[in-house]
Structures are given as structure tokens and as C-alpha cells.
Amino acid sequence: MRVTIFGASGLLGKALISNWTGDAVTGLGSRDADIRAAERVRQVVQETRPEWIVLAAAYTDVDGCEGNPELAFAVNRDGAVNVATAAKEFGARLLFLSSDYVFDGKKTTPYESEDSRNPQSVYGRTKAEAEIRLLELMPDCCIVRTSWLFGVGGKCFPDTILKLAAGRPALDVVNDQRGCPTYVVDLAGAITQLCRRSACGIVHVTNAGDCTWFEFAQQIVRSAGLATTVRPVSSQRMARPAPRPAYSVLSPTRLQALGIEMPSWRDALGRYLELRPK
Ligand SMILES: NC(=O)c1ccc[n+]([C@@H]2O[C@H](COP(=O)([O-])OP(=O)(O)OC[C@H]3O[C@@H](n4cnc5c(N)ncnc54)[C@H](OP(=O)(O)O)[C@@H]3O)[C@@H](O)[C@H]2O)c1
């Protein structure tokens, strides 16, 4: 199978490139093809002739999106439409990466694929609008919603916590946002399986289990054997430009129906800590 990955230089993209074996994979960063440039996107799809395109490219700075909505929509929604248009023209299937931020966080039980979108941030709106446009353009596309990514090779929450914990006796971490941490290596494996199984529609893919950022930080510090105290605080104390959903646990029902099981986030964190350069 030939696969073309947009966003190959990002956290997930790097994991896709290093873990995807057995197929002919082409990875593209923004310097190879800016997804805002429709003609360039068309050209690279024509050249690489993929059976599957994985669209992991996005403007992912959630707070940055709040201050620069034009750029956010240009990349995350209109760029995605450019990729889908080229995919359609050249007969490629498309797997698009979306986010738990398409939900408002008001539920108290896991979000199912078919639950209504109600994004609260600019970033969430760009992803929600992209999903709608892509499903109109390519009803057989596969939309993978994921959350709280971590991995080696980019900025992520465990890395930040470990760097901060190394120099401080105590850390304050928010305890009123609950979600599912996701190791990019496990997500990359699931994406490969979804393409091989010819999946379509909306699928939620995260590591199993959920926690708050505080609980996640506690586990990170504990697993790394550090003595730093982690203190729970409310998000009001840590105000940021973009609102975050209070609850964005994604249900794996559809993923499991496709025969794919994800390891727990605690297991994934252990494997990440073993690999992370000390
Ligand atoms: N990180 C999370 O917690 C999280 C949660 C839910 C969903 N997601 C989604 O999962 C996907 C992967 O996230 P990630 O954390 O791996 O992202 P990331 O590390 O921020 O990487 C973003 C990628 O997008 C590329 N990119 C940015 N602007 C582009 C443009 N205009 N044209 C072409 N490429 C462009 C970057 O290329 P260059 O580096 O070459 O500029 C990079 O390869 C994204 O769709 C993201 O929205 C992420």
C-alpha cells in the first residue's frame, strides 16, 4: 500500500514514520507542502499516488489559534479541504486527525462518535468545521478524534512536567479537566490498522482509561521516581486564552467494533519514560 502523510514532522507524524512498516510511506512537512496551497497539495498527491493519505498536519497551538483565527481556519479547515479535494481527484482514501475539543465538555460519560459537536474554542471550531466539510466532500473518509498526545520528539505534557519537577519541590496542576492521554506510538499503530481495515466514519482513538491533568502529572512524577509534590488546582487559577472542555473522555466503542484495543495510558506512559532521553 502507498501512504502519504501530511504533518510528518510533527509529534504524531514522527511516530507514524518510524512505526509504519510493510507499506511505502511518504512523509511531508510544511516545507514540502503547505496544505494552504491547493495546487502544491494536488501536485504532491499526483506525484506520490497514495492509496491512503493521513492528514496529521495542523496548526495545533490551541491558545495561538484563539489569537489568530484566520490562520487557524486557513490551515485546519481550508487546508484539510485542499487535501480532501486532491485525495478525491486521485482516488486516495483520507484519514483526518481531529480532536476532543470539538465537544463542549458538558457530558459526564464518555463521548461517542455520533455525539453532537459544540466546540468552545477557535481550535475546536476549526476541527469541527473541517470534519463537516470533509464528510460532505468524501463521505467515506475516516476521521480519527484523539486527545492529550504525548511522545518523544516534540513538546508534550510529560516532558514539560519532568523538566519542571527537576527544578522545583512542588508543582500546581489543574484537577478539573478530565480526558484521555494518548501515546503517539499507540495512536500510530491504530492508524495503520484503521487504514488496513479500510475504516470509514468517525472513530475515537486514545489510550484506555482517563484522568485529570493533576492525576496524569502525579503518575509522571511518581513513575520517574521524583520527590516533587504535585498539588491540585482549579483551571480558574491557571487561566489560558482558549477554554478547555472540563470533560472530554472519548469512548472507544467504534474502535473496538473494528477489532482494535488500545493499551492503558499508564502502560503507555511507562513505555514513553523508558524511551525518553534522560
Ligand atoms: N497534540 C495533541 O494533544 C492533539 C490532540 C488532539 C488532536 N490532535 C491532532 O493530531 C494531529 C497531530 O498533532 P501533533 O501534536 O503531532 O502536531 P504537531 O506536533 O504540532 O505537528 C504539526 C504538523 O503539522 C505541520 N503543519 C503545520 N502547519 C502546516 C501547514 N500550513 N501546511 C502543512 N503542514 C503544516 C507541521 O509541519 P512543520 O513542522 O514542517 O511546520 C507538523 O508536521 C493534528 O491534526 C492535531 O490537531 C493533537
The helix count comes to: 10
The side-by-side strand order for the widest beta sheet comes to 2-1-3-4-5-10
Q: Portion of residues in helices?
A: 40-55%
- What would you report as the Rg, rounded to the nearest angstrom? 18 Å
Mean pLDDT: 97
Q: Give the ordered list of helices and strands.
A: EHEHEHHEHEEHEEEHEEHEHH
Sheet with most strands: 6 strands, parallel
**What form results from the Cα inertia axes?**
globular
As residue ranges, the low-confidence spans are none
Specify the structural class. Answer: alpha/beta
Strand portion: 15-25%
Number of DSSP strands? 12
List the ligand species: NADP nicotinamide-adenine-dinucleotide phosphate
For the terminal residues, how far apart are their CA atoms?
A: 37 Å
Q: What is this entry, summarized?
A:
This protein is α/β, with parallel strands linked by helices. It has helices at 11-19, 38-48, 62-67, 69-89, 122-137, 157-167, 184-196, 213-223, 253-257, 265-275; strands at residues 2-6, 24-28, 52-55, 93-99, 142-146, 149-150, 170-174, 178-179, 182-183, 201-204, 211-212, 229-233.
